[in-house]
Amino acid sequence: MTRAETGRPLERFDIDRDQMGRDLVSLVLTVVELLRQLMERQAIRRVEQGDLSDEQVERIGETLMCLEERMTELCDQHGLRLEDLNLDLGPLGSLLPRD
Q1: For the chain: N or C, fewer Cβ within 10 A?
Q2: What is the 3-state secondary structure (H, E, C) of the chain?
Q3: d(C-alpha 47, C-alpha 56), whole Å
Q4: Distance CA 79, CA 87 (A)
């Protein structure tokens, strides 16, 4: 609505750009962490099926460890903890499983 339609001045939002940036980083890291956990579960299923070579299992393990380390580093850089990335979805519970 415009000012002419309501008869009152338009309200302006005071946007804290720093907070908005932190929230965006948190959201992006949450999505990345969700994908990382999904990849980890899929890798574990494939390993448990037994159809991977020892070399493939080793590579998967190393890759997952590197991804987890990098997520921890990114969280540290932005003043977050991995626990901070877990969104509360109300009656549905939390987005990320609690380990």
Answers
A1: C
A2: CCHHHHCCCCCCCCCCHHHHHHHHHHHHHHHHHHHHHHHHHHHHHHHHHCCCCHHHHHHHHHHHHHHHHHHHHHHHHCCCCHHHHCCECHHHCECCCCC
A3: 9
A4: 17
Distance CA 56, CA 46 (A): 10
Question: Which amino acid makes up residue 46?
Answer: R
Of the candidates 22, 37, 12, 19, the residue with the CA atom closest to the CA atom of residue 80: 22
Distance in angstroms between the alpha carbons of the first and the last residue of the chain: 47
- Residue 96 and residue 86 in contact, taking contact as beta carbons nearer than 8 Å: yes
pLDDT per position as a tens digit, 16-30: 777 777 888 889 999
- What CA–CA distance (Å, rounded) separates 66 from 59? 11
Task: Give the separation between CA 65 and CA 40, rounded to whole angstroms.
Answer: 10
**Per-residue pLDDT at 56 exceeds 90:** yes
The answer to whether the beta carbons of residues 99 and 41 sit under 8 Å apart is no
